[in-house]
Design goal:
This protein is α/β, with parallel strands linked by helices. It has 19 helices and 16 strands. It starts with 5 loop residues before the first strand and ends in a 5-residue tail after the last helix.
Amino acid sequence: MNSLRRILIIDDDGDFLIGMRMQLRGIYGVLTATTIVEGLRLIQDQDMDLVLLDVGLEGEDGLEGIKRIHEVHPSVGVAMLSGRRDVKTVVEAIRFGAVDYLTKPVSNDDLAEVVEKAVAARTLQERCEALLRSQMNSGSIRPTIVQRSQKMRQLMAEAEHIKGHRANVLIVGETGVGKELLARHINEESDEGRKRPFIAVNCAAIPDHLLESELFGHEAGAYTGANRRRIGKFELADGGDIFLDEISTMKLDLQVKLLRVLQERDFCRLGSNTPIKADFRVISASNQSLDALVESGSFRADLYHRLRVIQLMVPLLRERLEDIPLLVEHFLNKFSRGVTPKRVTDQAMARLMEYAWPGNVRELANVVQSLVIMTQSELIDVEAFPPWVLNGCKQAADVRPVLADHPPVPYAKDDVTTLRDYVAQAERRYIERVLTMHEGDKSKTARALNMGRTTLYMKLKELGLMK
C-alpha cells in the first residue's frame, strides 16, 4: 500500500507548483491548488499530512486561510510559504496556528523536518482527543466491587497479586458477573503512581470488517469511506491497558494479526506500512470456555496462551448469596439519588436471595432499579414486584419444584440482629431444602447448587449441617 506522506500546496504561482510536483515526486504524495477555496475542496475530500500555504495569495489573506483550513480539518498542520522571511509575518503565522514558516525555494530537508513535526503534532492531538472521548464515554466513576463472600474475597486477593506486573490477564465468567468492572479495578490499582489509560473494546459489538480498523486504526483512503486518518485502540492504550471483551467472538484471521501484535508490540494502521510501537497490557474477557473453542478449532491455541498468562474466574451471583444484600443496598443507594430512599423488606430480600439470577449482577441491578422506579412507597415488599421482575428464567435447576412446596427463604426472626446472621440463616435453610430434595445425596446437592463437593462439605460443616 502507498504510505507516502500527503502534502497539499496552495500557491497562485503555477510554475512554482509544477516545480514542487517534480521535485517531490516519489517522496510525497503532492496535490496542488491555486486558491484557498480550491484547497478547501481538496481537504474536504482527502486527508493531508501537511498544507503548504502561500502568504501572499492574490486577492486572499494567507494568514486568514489558516483559520479557514482548520475549520474544515482541525488537526492538519499548516506551514506558511513566502519568498522572503519577514519576522513580523512569521510571528503572525504562528499566532494564527501555523506549525512553521518556509521560504522559497523549499529544500527537501527543510520540508521533511516540517512534515514530520506536523505529523507528530497531529498524532499527539488526535490521540489526546480520542483518549479523552474514550474516558468520557466510559465514565469517571471509580469502579466499586461490592463483596463479602469467600469466593469474591479470594478473587480480589488474586487481583491484588497482579499489582506491579504487566502480564496479560484473561477474565472468565458468565454474562453480567462484572468482568469489565474487575478489569477496570485491575487498571485502577496500578502502582505506577499515575492513572493509566483504560481502553475498552467489545469485540462482539463491532462488525467483523470494522474491528481491525477499530483496533489498529487506518489511514485516509484505506477503504471506502475512510476519508480521515483514525487512531486505533492499541495506539490509544500505549502506556496503559486495553480491555478486549468477548474475545471469543474474534475471527481467526484477526486472531493471527492480534497474535503478532502481542509478540512484536508494534502494528501498522490499515493503509500504511509504517510500524507503530506501543506498550500496553491486554486484559481480555470471555463468557465462553476458550478451552472448548481451542479444541473445536475456532480459537487459536497460541493466542489463547498469550492472553492467559493470568486467569481470573468471576463467580456467578448464585454462588455468592451472602453478597446479594450488600449489592441490593448498593444499588438502592445508587438508583435512589434524587428520590425518596427505599428499603427492602425481609420478605422481599428473601425472594431476591432464592432466585437463580441467570443474568447475574447486571440482572440484579436492573431489578433493583425497576423496583426503585415503580414502588411509590418507601418500603419495597414482595407485593411491589412488577410482573416482569424475576421471571426471566426459572430458578436454579431442579430446585424450583421443592421450593414451591415450602415457604420461601426464612424471614428474619427477632433474634437475627445482623445482616451476617440473616444471610447465614437464609443460606442454611436453602441448602437444607436442596439436601432434602436429593435425600441427603451430597454429590447431587453439590451439582444442583453449582458448587464443588469440597466446598459443599465445608459449607455444611460451617453451618452445622454435617451428619
